[in-house]
Every structure is written in C-alpha cells, then in structure tokens.
Design a protein that fits this description.
alpha+beta; two-stranded antiparallel ribbon; two-stranded antiparallel sheet; 5 helices
Length: 205
C-alpha cells in the first residue's frame, strides 16, 4: 500500500488545492472520474482510483475495511486447517490494517499542521477569503480524524462494519474446515508410524 501526495500547493499566497491520490493495493478498488481544481482555478475531470469516492486518504481505510477475506480464509483452511494457523493469519490481517490506520492518521496530522501554518500566514497577509477556504478544508480533516478514531475503535473491538475483514476471514476458514470434514480427507494429518518388531515379539501366545 502506498499513498502519494494528498495535497499539492498552488502558487504562492494561493489556497492549497486538494489533489488526493490514494493508491490501494490488492483491494477491490474501482476507477472513477472526479473534479479536481487546477492551478489556474479551472476544474477538470481526472481519473482517481479509490475504493470509495471521497478522494481523501480515508478512502484507503474504507477500502481495507470493505475487503472480504472469506476466500482467502477458505484457501488457507484447505492448506492447513489448524486453528493456530487461522489465528496467526487473523493477527497478520489485523496488524496490517492497524498499521494502515497509523499511516493515514499520521498523514492527516501532517496535513492539519500544514493547513494551520498556511492559515496563520494568510491571516497575516490579510487573505481572508483564503483563510475561509482553509478553514473549510480543516473542518473536513477534523471530521475525517473523528471518523478514523471511531473506525479504529470498532475495528479493535471487532464490532459494526469495521469487523468485516476479520469476521469474513474466519467465516471462510470455518467453511474450509467444514468442507474438509465433509470430504473425509483431513489436511495436514499425519498417519501414525508403524513400529518394527522383532521375530520374537511377533510370536503369539
């Protein structure tokens, strides 16, 4: 997963225009066209690959939380139906998504700090209309930060919509275990070894 330059600067003393480009790997992302402002203030349609169409970093989180891991869980169970193997894979998915949460939160923190600095500069320069625009952008950042906080809390507690990734994996894994049980061919089960015996031991009473 990578995230490239969510914000680009307009010419000096101009407002910062949002140019969000979340790059989502291995997700069911879709390409859509969104209106983006160019440096001369005009609007043009540009392709934006995201899982949801907000065009902000939070789209990356939505993409991960929307992902269904059921098929992966099923395939893993067919490879190794041991529950310890299941728990290990669930931990890997959980830690990966928590890392994404930290990365996105850090991005928003940097963006928020950048906006605050620009707002102060614009106030000093008397660019009140620019300050108003930046305040609107700041309100979006704050709203997304709160949404991220709630989503992360739900994910950690495995509740609400944020539980989709882990629960879908577990569902797929259990489906795989059931398939193995019904087929009567357990995976990764070793047959007991036959022990050799001496001729004397083979003498029956």
């Amino acid at each position: 997963m990578g995230i490239f330059s969510f914000f680009t600067r307009k010419k000096e003393n101009g407002p910062a225009m949002i140019a969000t480009l979340p790059v989502v790997d291995n997700l069911d992302a879709e390409t859509t066209e969104v209106l983006q402002q160019t440096n001369d203030g005009a609007e043009e349609k540009k392709p934006l690959t995201v899982s949801y169409a907000t065009g902000w970093p939070i789209d990356v989180i939505y993409g991960y939380l929307h992902k269904n891991y059921e098929e992966q869980g099923f395939k893993d169970a067919m490879t190794n139906s041991d529950l310890a193997f299941r728990d290990l894979n669930i931990d890997i998915i959980r830690n990966k998504i928590l890392m994404v949460f930290r990365e996105i939160n850090l991005n928003y923190d940097v963006t928020k700090n950048d906006i605050e600095i620009r707002m102060e500069t614009c106030r000093t320069a008397g660019l009140l209309s620019t300050v108003t625009d930046l305040e609107k952008t700041m309100s979006i950042v704050d709203a997304h930060k709160e949404e991220l906080r709630q989503l992360e809390e739900d994910f950690r507690n495995d509740t609400n919509e944020a539980s989709i990734p882990l629960k879908s994996y577990e569902c797929g894994f259990l489906r795989g275990v059931a398939t193995i049980a019904l087929s009567g061919t357990p995976k990764n089960t070793t047959m007991p070894k036959m022990t050799s015996t001496s001729p004397e031991e083979r003498v029956t009473a």
